[in-house]
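Our consortium's second objective concerns turning raw sequence data into structural hypotheses that experimental partners can test. To show how far this objective has progressed, the report includes one record in full. It was chosen at random from the queue rather than selected for favorable results. The single chain below, 153 residues long, was entered without modification.
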Amino acid sequence: MISCKSEKKEKTIYIVRHAEKQLVQDSDPDLAQVGYIRAKKLAQILKDQEIKHIFSTNYKRTQLTAQPTAEQAGVEIQSYEPSNHDELVDKLHELEGNVLIVGHSNTVSRLANYFIGEGEKFNDLTEDEYNFIYEVKLSKDGSAVLRKLYKDY
């Protein structure tokens, strides 16, 4: 657990990479069957976490990963631009309630790193890593970031 000082509203932010995608020559592929299963598992994990906001990049694989959780929580999926994490982080600090963010192998660790401060940073995920959930706890005393596996829940 790594923490830094911050005066923010208490909440938990769950950051995940999109689930497994189809291996096709397409810049915006659908999820593979195993990816749909992972998306449903994510919804099960977050069922009792009172998710109030969901953010996803504007790709099929991220939107489809977020969809089961959004339907379960009765929340609209909001799009965010993965190249502008500063804007998203500012928004996250202001929101009330717990949040799910679905991104990509080269964005989820970087987003989690915003909440680490001076501690050791996470590396980008490799192309075959789908199993991590970054759990960011924001409180009036600061923030803490844990990187867990789906099986830890």
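The partners drew two points from this record. Residues 1-8 have pLDDT under 50 and may be disordered. Residues 33-46 form the longest helix (14 residues). Both points have been shared with the crystallography group to help prioritize constructs.
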